[in-house]
Task: structure prediction
Amino acid sequence: MALRRVLVVGLDPVRIPGWDPEPVVAAITRGHARFGDHGIEADLCLVAPDENAEGAIVEALTRKDYACVVVGGGIRKHEPLLEFFEKLVNLVRQHAPDAAIAFNSSPEDTVDAALRWLR
Result:
């Protein structure tokens, strides 16, 4: 039984051209598996900022009640995505106002970011 539900929003490494996505996909898979180790139900919302990312994020945010939304570093740390990052934070505030917002430092410590707010 899940303690609380978490949504993880990040860049979809498969849809970013020009580099090998496999190491990031593997890290996301390992990190996501850790939620189960803690009895936490977690959903992924992986987007490409040049597509209908905002619509996909709103759909994910409104699909279930989330106690926490973790925003991935690919969105936060890449300066050209600053405006997208701001939009994402405000979408969370608007569509999941009761959810905490957390930030990971890598795909593998995503559960640690969520746990800071779920305890």
The CA atoms of residues 11 and 48 lie 6 Å apart. The chain has one domain: 5-116. The mean pLDDT is 94.
